[in-house]
Amino acid sequence: MSKHEKRLEYLLFSAWAISVIATAGSLYFSEIIGYIPCELCWYQRIAMYPLVVLLGIAVVKKDYKQAIYGLGLSTIGIIIATYHYLLQKIPALSVTDSCGIIPCTGQYINWLGFITIPFLALTAFILITILLVYMILIEKRREQD
Q1: For domain 3-140, is the CATH number 3.20.80?
Q2: What angle do CA 103, 47, 71 make, to 5 degrees?
Q3: For 35-60, how does the pLDDT look when each residue is reduced to its tens digit (9 = 90+)?
Q4: Buried b (16+ CB within 10 A) or exposed e, 30-62
Q5: How many other C-beta atoms can be found within 10 angstroms of the C-beta atom of residue 66?
Q6: Beta-carbon contacts of residue 51 (< 8 Å; ≥ 6 apart)
Q7: Domain limits of the chain?
Q8: Which residue from 132, 137, 128, 126 is spatially nearest to 4, judged by alpha carbons?
Q9: Is the pLDDT confidence value at 80 over 70?
Q10: What are the pLDDT digits (tens) for 100-111?
Q11: For residue 122, is it left (φ>0), alpha (ψ between -120 and 50) or beta?
Q12: At 111, is the secondary structure helix, strand, or coil?
């Protein structure tokens, strides 16, 4: 196994592991603690949950080209999570108190004054995106060699 291939394997596994941790965290908050997800939280889950399956299959098959598909989902997740986080932290952006039954401006957690659930999701999406972009760059470099 070449140095590039080993690096790709680590990057892909890391991206998958982050998606598993993020998914487990969201399920912990809703199913164990009992926090009801707001509408934007559901959209973030729609972007994150398939990454567990997509990247998991890619890890098993060592299919590094799947990074491009994961990148699409993680980018959508970044957009939704950023918007959700801004709604929580900048009151002027919130025209209404609710985006569904549960208000999207609500903060079940607010660790250190800035870490909320959308912030955690945003962090996971950003990390996954960075890893997948790096994988794509390594693949392109490998194809040129």
Answers
A1: no
A2: 140
A3: 999 999 999 999 999 999 999 999 99
A4: beeeebebbebbebbbebbbebbebbbebbeee
A5: 20
A6: 15, 16, 19, 70, 73, 74, 128
A7: 3-140
A8: 137
A9: yes
A10: 788 888 899 999
A11: alpha
A12: strand
